[in-house]
């Protein structure tokens, strides 16, 4: 099974998490299932997400879609996310 690992910093985890959770339906439509949302012990605004991926190409279309930059801005993502599709 393929996976998607995303790592980025956010301004405020609680705000980011509300926006992230509001996109659950879109994530599911893209074939992504959230497995873990983890925070750095030293910096709770440093976030890592692990998703199970049904279809890599469909997931890539979602992750790299034009809507994603707006969602990053809305949720307070501070940097360019590190995105890894893994097997």
Structural account:
The chain is of the alpha+beta class and about 90 residues long. The chain has one domain: Alpha-Beta Plaits (2-Layer Sandwich), CATH 3.30.70.100. The protein is about 40% helix and about 30% strand. The protein is built from four helices and four strands, in the order E-H-H-E-E-H-H-E. It has helices at about 15-20, 25-30, 55-65, 65-75, and strands spanning about 5-10, 30-40, 45-55, 80-85. A four-stranded antiparallel beta sheet has the order 2-3-1-4. Strand 2 and strand 3 (about 45-55) form a beta hairpin. It is globular.
Count helical runs: 4
Q: Low-confidence segments, ≥5 residues, pLDDT <50?
A: none
Rg from Cα: 12 Å
Task: Give the integer mean of the pLDDT values.
Answer: 94
- Summarize the amount of helix as a percent range: 25-40%
Number of strands: 4
The CATH class is identified as Alpha Beta
End-to-end distance: 6 Å
Alpha-beta classification: alpha+beta
Q: Could you tell me the strand content as a percent range?
A: 25-35%
CATH architecture: 2-Layer Sandwich
Number of domains: 1
Strands ordered across the widest β-sheet: 2-3-1-4
Q: Write the element-wise H/E pattern from the N-terminal end onward.
A: EHHEEHHE
């Amino acid at each position: 099974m393929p996976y998607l690992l995303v790592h980025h910093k956010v301004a405020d985890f609680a705000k980011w998490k509300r926006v992230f959770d509001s996109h659950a339906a879109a994530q599911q439509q893209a074939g992504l299932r959230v497995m873990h949302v983890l925070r750095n012990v030293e910096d709770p605004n440093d976030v890592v997400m692990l998703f199970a991926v049904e279809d890599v190409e469909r997931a890539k279309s979602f992750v790299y879609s034009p809507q994603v930059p707006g969602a990053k801005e809305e949720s307070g993502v501070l940097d360019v996310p590190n995105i890894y599709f893994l097997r």
